[in-house]
């Protein structure tokens, strides 16, 4: 008779030995984040701390840095130009958002749909993304010139007015130029979001007799919840960084009509040579941006990675 030896096998899904688990947990994967963290500390955290330190000093950018306590902060907070800059920034933020958001959403849904000329239209929409803000500002400044711009060239008096020299019109011109440049970017975001929506939802809606409008409000918009929050965050926080476009287009004028906060910070530091006050303005700018970003991200809830299909 021959004896049969049975070798016990570990059940599928059984836990690894404690020593093996500890070895895996102590692997080198955590060290892979060190270069990114070092880069972030070197080029983000340390400069921010430096700006915070300079906000308590008096410095003209060339001479000796002297500690000055809260003098720079008192100067900035008591300056009416700072209040005006905050108001102008809020106006540009608000109007650019209400213009860009609906247009970007509708264009994103349109370009994501199956249509004959979708590729050609998508290329046309995204041309402004290839241009820098300075180039866009120079182009529109030439087009809006009351003497040699588009209006006089076409013989249209309504377009031949001083758009950039009229304090009642210039803010809306700035908002229009901002929308012209950045709507394609947000259109691309919404286009990607729409393409991630399962086609089965629309097929089921069609079977139930839902039209395009009903599908848009009951399927597309709910499924784009987190996409809208991401796009809105970029729009709102991005409005704090329109320095180059506004500087080239209007230089903050006429008067203080378009002197938004980042431009006010630049002019305070490099025109008035007051780096302490400019640093204080920079800290205010960062705090506002962080507060807005955190607020908008909290609108998405705790688990932004959860699927809308699961009721998140």
Automatic annotation (TrEMBL):
GO cellular component terms, semicolon-separated:
plasma membrane
Q: Where is the signal peptide?
A: none
Q: Which GO terms describe its biological process?
A: transmembrane transport
| Membrane disposition | Multi-pass membrane protein
Per UniProt, residues of the ABC transmembrane type-1 domain are 86-296
Q: What is its main location?
A: membrane
Annotated membrane-spanning segments are 31-56, 92-113, 120-144, 169-190, 234-256, 276-296
> Does the record's keyword annotation contain Membrane?
yes
Keywords, alphabetical: Cell membrane, Membrane, Transmembrane, Transmembrane helix, Transport
Q: Where in the cell is it found?
A: Cell membrane
Q: Which domain of life does the protein's organism represent?
A: Bacteria
> Region annotation Disordered: residue ranges?
1-25
Q: Name one Pfam family in it.
A: BPD_transp_1
PANTHER family (UniProt xref): ABC TRANSPORTER PERMEASE PROTEIN (PTHR30193), INNER MEMBRANE ABC TRANSPORTER PERMEASE PROTEIN YCJO (PTHR30193:SF37)
Q: Which family does it belong to?
A: Belongs to the binding-protein-dependent transport system permease family.
Q: What is this protein called?
A: Sugar ABC transporter, permease protein
Species source reads Paenarthrobacter aurescens (strain TC1)
């Amino acid at each position: 008779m021959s004896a049969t030896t049975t070798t016990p096998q570990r059940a599928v899904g059984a836990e690894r030995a404690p020593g093996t688990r500890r070895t895996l947990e102590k692997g080198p994967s955590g060290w892979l984040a060190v270069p990114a963290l070092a880069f972030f500390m070197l080029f983000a955290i340390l400069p921010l701390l430096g700006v915070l330190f300079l906000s308590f000093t008096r410095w003209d950018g060339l001479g000796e840095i002297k500690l000055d306590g809260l003098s720079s902060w008192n100067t900035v907070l008591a300056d009416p130009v700072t209040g005006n800059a905050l108001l102008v920034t809020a106006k540009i933020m608000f109007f650019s958002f209400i213009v860009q958001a609906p247009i970007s959403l509708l264009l994103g849904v349109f370009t994501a749909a199956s249509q004959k000329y979708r590729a050609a239209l998508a290329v046309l929409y995204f041309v402004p993304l290839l241009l820098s803000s300075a180039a866009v500002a120079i182009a529109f400044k030439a087009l809006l010139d009351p003497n040699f711009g588009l209006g006089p060239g076409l013989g249209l008096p309504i377009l031949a007015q001083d758009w950039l020299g009229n304090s009642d019109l210039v803010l809306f011109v700035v908002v229009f130029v901002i929308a012209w440049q950045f709507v394609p970017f947000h259109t691309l975001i919404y286009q990607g979001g729409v393409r991630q929506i399962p086609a089965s939802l629309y097929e089921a809606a069609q079977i139930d007799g839902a039209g395009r409008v009903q599908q848009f409000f009951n399927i597309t918009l709910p499924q784009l919840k987190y996409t809208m929050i991401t796009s809105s965050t970029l729009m709102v926080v991005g409005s704090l960084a329109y320095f180059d476009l506004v500087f080239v287009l209007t230089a903050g004028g006429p008067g203080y009509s378009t002197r938004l906060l980042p431009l006010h910070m630049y002019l305070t530091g490099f025109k008035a040579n007051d780096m302490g006050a400019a640093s204080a303005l920079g800290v205010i700018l960062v705090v506002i941006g962080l507060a807005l970003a955190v607020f908008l991200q909290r609108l998405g809830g705790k688990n932004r990675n959860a699927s809308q299909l699961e009721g998140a």
